[in-house]
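agent: user wants the structure for 8-amino-7-ketopelargonate synthase from Nitrospira defluvii. delegating to structure tool.
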Amino acid sequence: MSNLRPLPEAHHLMFEQHLQKLQDHHLLRRLRTIDSATGPTAVLEGREVILLSSNNYLGLATHPTVVEAAIAATRQYGAGSGAARLVCGSLMPHHTLEAALARFKGTEAALTFAAGYLTNIGAIPALIGKNGLILADRLCHASLIDGCRLSGAMFRVYHHGDMHHLERLLARRPAGTPTLIVTDGLFSMDGDIAPMQDIAQLAERYDAMIYVDDAHGTGILGRTGRGTLEYCEVESRVPFHMGTLSKALGSSGGYLTGSASFIAYLVNTCRSFTYTTAPNPGSAAAAAAALQIIEQEPERRLRLWENRARLAQGLLRLGFDLAASQSPILPIIVGDPDRAMTMAQSLFAHGVYAPAIRPPTVPPTTSRIRLTITADHTPEQIDRALVILEQAGRAINLI
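agent: tool returned. relaying tokens verbatim.
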């Protein structure tokens, strides 16, 4: 028997009507239970499937060294951090990770957050306020958009990757307006890379700051895996670098790196740092261990890109539309959300899990199957997945 007070009938009806509307438009979502680690395969709702939806690009979430680091830190420091770091004290695993991140990114200092989302919704308002202007790429991640809105600054969106549109907006702003250009480094739903050389040139010409969310680029892009800014050769032209610990690093959390004064400024002004319990020590230790592996085992990145090439070439050979992907994120554009759902269900029925991505996550008429490949997938798994993808694509007349 529930101890909850019964929901007022009007509220219950409102919830049900909204859910039915989502169902009618093939946009209803539900949680699916995975009863295993998220490796190249996973046990999903009782059956083993080839997992093509994880952002665990380098397979580090299950790497024995990373797992053992999390266990050891948990044994020593506990499962939780107790409180925010300014309240309860700052645990050594957080300091160790931040020092490692600063070394990895070539900056003076770093600050970690419990999630990438918290990093963005706290840092952007700390950088610019209601007297400023934010110009953001149309396909920015939701956390960036929310951070922009929370800042209170004037907020304008430029067409995706369109530097002519961005420059027009910069040229039209009132003289002396503090300006922040906001973009993803590697876009999570299309798999393309922001034109960072052009953005840096415009920022310098019009005296604007740049804020880049490199959640998906960190660990996989660039000669040493430092991310999109290294790949685009603009690291020294962007004063602070944001990323997450939850993709290629196989842990959880977000981070910012930059000058010591910038990090001290965030400690004193960033609400999502000040008022949030610190990340658990096990996650911090796991991320620090993952950074070491990224630096010591570059062959993981090589294997990831070999797998990406094998999957992408196979999909193109079959006739799939992959949009403009330049990364291990390979979206198959379907268009209609109902057809995308039908294809995802067919894939799952035959042993591949790659869910349909539908509005509002992506623009209308661009529903897709978003595939992500990892370093740990075997050639046999990729080839088997291609057979299943071909069957599912032909079943809905997509190829």
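agent: one observation worth passing along. The chain has two domains: 29-57+298-395, 62-296.
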